[in-house]
Each structure stands twice: as C-alpha cells, then as structure tokens.
Amino acid sequence: MVGGVVTRVIDGWLNTGGSDIGTPTGGDVWRQVITYNTDNGFRPELQSVYVQSDTIQTVNANTTLTGVERVVYVDTDGGNVDITLCDAADFPAWERLVIQKIAAGHTMTIIAASGDTINGVGSMAFANQWHGATLLKKSNNEWTFVK
C-alpha cells in the first residue's frame, strides 16, 4: 500500500446536557476530524472542533449577516426569507458558513453582498426543507459553494 493520509470529517450537534448527538437547537455545533495515517497502519488521530453557540442563529425574516455567524438556520414557515451575506471582505479567509432551511414551506434565497458572488452568481434559492449551503470565503469578493 502506498503511504499517505486519509481524513474523515463528521459534522453534528451536541445536546446541552452531554455528548450525545442531538438537534440543531440547544447545543454547540461540533466537527469531528479523524485522520488516518496509512504509513502508521491507519492509526486514527482524532481532533474535534467546536463552534460557539453565540455564532449560531435561527431567523424567520429577511436578514443581512454581519460576519460573526457561522451557522444560520432559516425558518420559512411564515413566508419566503432572503439571507444577504456580509461583504466577503469582512469574513475570515476560508472560514466556513453554513446556512440551512429548516422548514418545509416557501423559499430561502441566499444573496451575495453588492459586488460579491457565490460561484460567479449573485444568489442561490432553496425550496426544500433541510437544503442549504456550506460556503467558504474564497477572496474579498467571492464565496465558494461547497455543498
């Protein structure tokens, strides 16, 4: 076998009271990164990264992000909701921003700030519950849609 490194990333939520995987409300978002070094017989090296609760928000109306958010849940039960991104220049380079539609009704639209783009376009619309975007700041005026 050729040597190298294999990485597995798992995202989820922690319940307020413990380490069980829970729902998006009531806890901190966690990311578990497991790296397997194939030169070392796939010995796992575990690293967990947490997102502070104060960077998570749930919105149900048109909102312009400020740049401190890392996870935004969008409740569209009351109607269509537009999420306008902060100016990409105000967001840390290659930081991840997750925006997810949590309701079945209506449409969530993610809109780039004036002069910015998301993969070359000005906006992205999502109609289905649990759909959304993981975005990375690529440059001072461009976001990359990861998934």
Which helices and strands occur, and which strands form pairs?
Blueprint: E1 5-13, E2 29-37, E3 43-51, E4 56-59, E5 63-64, E6 71-74, E7 81-84, E8 96-101, E9 108-111, E10 117-118, E11 123-126, E12 132-139, E13 142-145
Parallel strand pairs: 4-6, 5-7, 6-8, 7-9, 10-13
Antiparallel strand pairs: 1-2, 2-3, 8-12, 9-11, 12-13
Task: List the keywords.
147 residues; mainly beta; four-stranded mixed beta sheet; 13 strands
Description:
The chain is mainly beta and 147 residues long. It folds into two domains: 5-51, no CATH class; 54-145. Helix content is 0%, strand content 47%. The strands form three sheets. A six-stranded mixed sheet has the order 4-6-8-12-13-10, with no helix packed on it. Strands 5-7-9-11 form a four-stranded mixed sheet, with no helix packed on it. A three-stranded antiparallel sheet has the order 1-2-3, with no helix packed on it. The chain starts with a strand and ends with a strand.
